[in-house]
Amino acid sequence: MPSAPDEAQAGGTTGTADCPSCSGGKEFRFILSQDISLPLSFRVNRFVPGRTLLIERSAPVLFVECTLYIDGVQFGLSTNTRLKSLGSPYCWNELVTLSAKYRDLTPFSHLAFTVWDVSSGEDNIYIVGGTTISLFNSKNQLKTGRLRLRVWPNKMADGSLSTSTPGKVPKTKREEIERLEREYGANLHTSVPLSLVDISKNKLVIACDPEIGQINPSEHKHSVLAWSWARGVNDREMKPSSVDRKLIQTILKYPPTRTLNVDEKQLLWKFRFYLTSEKKALVKFLLSVEWSDIQEAKQAVALIPRWESIDVADALGLLSPVFQNEEVRAYAVGVLERANDEELQCYLLQLVQGLRFERSDRSHLAHFLLCQITNLLAFFAVVELHDPSHARRYLCTYEMLEDAIMRSVHREEDGFLVWQSLIEQAELTAQLRSIMNELSNVKHDAQTKGKILEQLFSGIFSELKNFSEPIPSPLAPTVLLDGIVPEESLVFKSANYPLCLAFSTVNGGTSKMIFKKGDNLRKDQLVIQIISLMDRLLKSDNLDLHLTPYQVLATGLEEGLVEFIPSISVAKIIQKTGSIKSYLQKCNPDEDGPFGITAQCLETFIKSCAGYSVITYILGIGDRHLDNLLLQDDGRLFHVDFSYMLGEQPHRFAPPSPPMKLCKEMVEAMGGTESEYYARFKSYCCEAYNILRKSSNLILNLFYLMTGSNIESITDKGTSKLQQNFRLDLGDEDAIHFLQGLINESISAFFPQVVETIHQWAQSRR
């Protein structure tokens, strides 16, 4: 446990203030930290591991790495304590002095402590645990005295603003053991002795030098001085040479996930005044700024208003975790305020995730979101409450939303009624969850579960047949639901037996939706959102591929609602009619049309096949089979169930699937690989691919904002796969040749046929 810094007794400017709550006009004295030039110091006392923390380590040799973080960025070098190997508790009682001074600290300063075990040698250093403590309390007073910190097992100390290794756990998250610790004190913290086995032979002991691998102070100072000299150029009229211009244009074409090297950063900083007329250069310039240098950060922020206004795609990039500066993030929010509501709805999911990277709960982004679509924002915030590391942030957002609605911020509607409708929607999903729990206790097939569902609607859930007041549909708030129609509701034959529920509406119609439990619908929600965005991008370029971006809403970590689209799976079509072509002939007959199908229907089918083939390739959608390819009567084909994305596969050791999800049944419906309709299909694929490549930065930024969402697919490897699928290194002509090669490769693939056979066998047993 480290001791907090002692109160400063000398140096700096002192002051006095009256305490209004104290009788007799008492005074208290204070010293501003900015006036104290003393180095930051504290004492590391001891470390008491838990019962199982070091149980597998025969003879631990520990040291503590101490690091200072200011505004989420490491400040100066880390300092290590001496080695300790005498057993628990590990006592150092060592005074640690850092290079930073008290005057360098900000209210967002943290000390990070990582406990390391080097008993296995320098090549196999073991992380025992880590913890982080803020140096200032909620009143911006420097913490003093003896502190006891919680150590998070097997984690390095996280010095970011929203740390994942807090030394002080919020009261709502403390467990029973901490109550007992407070009640019984030291009696609960007696050391647990380790059993040591004496072996009668000499051991080769490796002494590890903890300074190995650290930055050489002399080299670091030299590089800082060289950097400062190069950054000191302040010529506002300086223009790049032709060589430098080419280099700058190359840098501006980099994807947003690429890290700039030192030379590239120097180049952008050197010609920063020249680049203010190039809106695409702002994000790259801000990436070149050394934000730990206060003066440089001030210069960069002052330059932002002079820059050509950036697009929404670049503004989304400024809300990523890379940019912590509040002025930069506020500027990004200002750009978003100029976008229309329809466009913002395409990005709302990512903007809610962006709250994770804000410094405070009541940020510019949070206030901006309160003015957006309340229905979706409420559900998005509730889902994020399940994430322990950011639950407090989203609880604050939810409370701010409630307060904003109840204060009738939206003047055209009564605030109380709006909030009441959100509560009713939440209660409806809770009742649907209870129904799923009842059905999960019954080990029968889908048909039997369907009969039990009818009994539930006639029994304990009979009130769902007629709502006391109409409830807005969570998927489409403008549609008012009257109640469930049991006769038209059923249980699907699938792994988790989802419910297909029919609701009567106030206008006399029917609205169908699917309730799923046991699937991570946040993935489906993200994929459908991206498909909707891509559909918008294609249509803005005059290419309508007749996509079907149905509605998906996650209401929990493993549950949610899906819009029901009347359709039939390709697997059932082949089972009943023998081929897709026969089905289209039956639904849209035309003796004079191609293959006896109306020309419009065949064109719709070809376009939708092309659209989903390209999109599922770009997003790396896995686990494709004929049961999650659906076809509507008018020829629209679409995909469902996106549990595997960004290159994921359902089986770890399965052979790689073909790059494009194109089955032979689809090609046969187009007349085969030699037909003009198949050639048209390939043409649509290539055109769509190049259109979407032009918006690659927007799509990459949206996925980058999702990196903190705890969706297992969204990793550095996954986003790298997404970037790779765009092939940004190719021109449009080369990209066309590349995609045509992928189509040919996918058509001749054998493995999907094997997978489809296995899947159909598994389905028949359900």
From TrEMBL:
InterPro entries: ARM-type_fold (IPR016024), C2_domain_sf (IPR035892), Kinase-like_dom_sf (IPR011009), PI3-kinase_type3/VPS34_cat (IPR057756), PI3/4_kinase (IPR015433), PI3/4_kinase_cat_dom (IPR000403), PI3/4_kinase_cat_sf (IPR036940), PI3/4_kinase_CS (IPR018936)
Organism: Oryza punctata (Red rice)
Domain of life (superkingdom): Eukaryota
Gene Ontology MF terms: 1-phosphatidylinositol-3-kinase activity; ATP binding
Ranges where the C2 PI3K-type domain occurs: 32-189
Domain PI3K/PI4K catalytic: 485-751
PROSITE patterns named in the record: C2_PI3K, PI3_4_KINASE_2, PI3_4_KINASE_3, PIK_HELICAL
Name of one Pfam family that matches: PI3K_C2
Identification of the protein by name: phosphatidylinositol 3-kinase
PANTHER family xref list: PHOSPHATIDYLINOSITOL 3-KINASE, PHOSPHATIDYLINOSITOL KINASE
GO CC list: endosome; peroxisome; phagophore assembly site; phosphatidylinositol 3-kinase complex, class III, type I; phosphatidylinositol 3-kinase complex, class III, type II
Enzyme nomenclature, EC number: 2.7.1.137
Broadest EC class assigned to this enzyme: transferase
Alphabetized UniProt keyword annotations: ATP-binding, Kinase, Nucleotide-binding, Transferase
Membrane-traversing stretches: none
Homology family: Belongs to the PI3/PI4-kinase family.
GO biological process: autophagosome assembly; endocytosis; phosphatidylinositol-mediated signaling
Sequence ranges assigned to domain PIK helical in this UniProt record: 235-459
